[in-house]
Amino acid sequence: MAARSLRRFGTVLSLGGAPRRGSLYFRGSPCVFSTAAQQRSTGDECGPEDPRDEPKHPLSDCALEHKAIKLEEQVRDLTERYRKALADSENVRRRTQKFVEDAKLFGIQSFCRDLVEVADILEKTAESAAEEAEPSNPNPTLKKIYEGLSLIEAKLQSVFAKHGLQKMNPVGGKYDPYDHEIVCHVPAEGMQPGTIALVTQDGYKLHGRTIRHALVGVAVESQE
Fold this sequence. Notes:
Radius of gyration: 57 Å
Low-confidence stretches: 9-47
Number of strands: 8
Strand order of the largest sheet: 3-6-7
Oligomer: single chain
Structural class: alpha+beta
Order of helices and strands: HEEHHHHEEEEEE
Mean pLDDT: 78
Number of helices: 5
Shape: elongated
Helix content: 40-55%
């Protein structure tokens, strides 16, 4: 009975045609069974496409032009800032260089102010020795002292000139408030009013900068 039933089932299968893809076999006899995995696979193949695979819309010409304009503005702004920063750094470099050069030139300014006072004392001493060592006074010692002081004074002025320190010679020149200080007025005898007639204390300049004003007397018109 069981053998007859199996032969009938085989006949039905042979009439149904060749087994389809995905069918199962039972002891050489094809048995058609549709699997759920195959159905899901078929459903996935027929499903909607992934939205990420859709092509992106390119930016419009107007948007690209607007973006290009903004980038150009940023470039101009950054370029201007760079130029200003470069100019500021150059100004700082120049000021620093000028400060260093002035420090080298005028670092001895306070020392020179003290040293010119020694030169004043030496000059007055030499003048006094010259008055005592006149031809009427045959004292050889005073004469040698005067000669020694004169040599020292000349050497000191040479050292001053070597380091940029120079004595002013304003007699006969115009009064300059940046270089001179008026201490008296004298009658203008053969001189133009406003010119310097005498100097009571020498003035000095260090590399062209006045470090001590000359004390002068200015000529004025005499009032009769």
